[in-house]
User: What shape does this take?
Amino acid sequence: MGVKVAVVGAGSTYTPELVEGFVAHGDRLPVDELAMFDVDPGRLETVGAVSRRILSRLGWQGRLVVSTDRARALDGASFVIVQIRVGGQAARLLDETLPLEFGCIGQETTGAGGFAKGIRTVPVVLDIAEETARRGADGAWLIDFTNPVGIVTQALLDEGHRAIGLCNVAIGLQRMLAGLLGVEWEQVGLEHVGLNHLSWERAVRVDGVDVLSDLLAEHAGPVAEHVGLPADLVRLMGNVPSYYLRYYYLTDEVLEEQRSGAHASRAEEVMGIERELLEMYRDASVDRKPELLARRGGAFYSEAAVRLMASLHDGTGDVQVVDVRNGGAIRELAPDAVVEIPARVDADGAHPAPLEPLAPEIAGLMQEVKAYERLAVRAATMGSRSDAVRALMANPLVPSFGVATRLADALLEANRSYLPRFFPDGETNALAPRA
Assistant: This one.
């Protein structure tokens, strides 16, 4: 029997990548209705049309529904994929630039910019989850690809929702490392430990055998280049850090580069890419995802998302890297902390296995960032300026109480129109999501 999948934020330029994945994995996840929802009718129409052409070319036999009616999209859905961006790329640009005025890293998921995105996003995703619980199929799953994934998933699970967070960092590293090792990606398993956008590969197994030491001895340079860190640092760590750790390990260098203005912000780059992609999507002859989409980010997102849903559907019990409750897998963190680690995925959910103790330099940073994430969730749900200041004080990329206080006020004011819980009497526009 087929299932219904709803995509919230379907006006995203990512969506053509996603719809191809449904067809590619149709043997494991038989989707008979795909509902695409977005609050932006123009983008939804454009992305919906190219998605329909792609599905037609691939011979998909299901029903595609494109709608600005969220209730219609969620009704009876077994899986709800949330890929939204509250405030669009304009808000992202603010996340990447406003913190620089206070001597802090500007990034959309990490540091002060990630905090701003989190407090805009958490209430909207919780609202979607509540409606999913009312309208979705019995036991419906919410799959969150919306950043900051760790904060959003922590909020969802704290509120008791049936949700799993998903990121493409691990699958991207798996494919890159397989290429360096000259093996098929299916042969490579990663011991991926950490939080979302704060993770390390502590083992790289080929056919079950850990080859991490040999990998770093022979390929430290290419690995380091891929993750944006010095090779000497990668060798010192003895693992493969994620790209996002450069903001913590190379803070001064990254901040100097960002403040120099030598390069356009990532938000500005993505704005340009999205304009080109949407123009391509409007061409009625386009019936496949353009190569340009690879530069948008989210590589392998489609495969990761559909594999996760397929395993939840058919209960195969394969191991995937997801954002879930720790449950004691990482003993240095509380059981209810959301972590990003390998888990066995079956029809009952994702089940992490116990992991070896963390090195002190990893454990300390994870504990600090998890404290920040919990405070960010509390600030977002309560609309509390005091909790906003506390969250920023706990963030390793904010240097002091004084900076945290001034930065909190600036971020709250700049995002006023998306923060009804902080400004209940002000004019807001909190329902403007788009990935």
Notes: The CA atoms of residues 257 and 263 lie 8 Å apart. Confidence is low (pLDDT under 50) at residues 428-435.
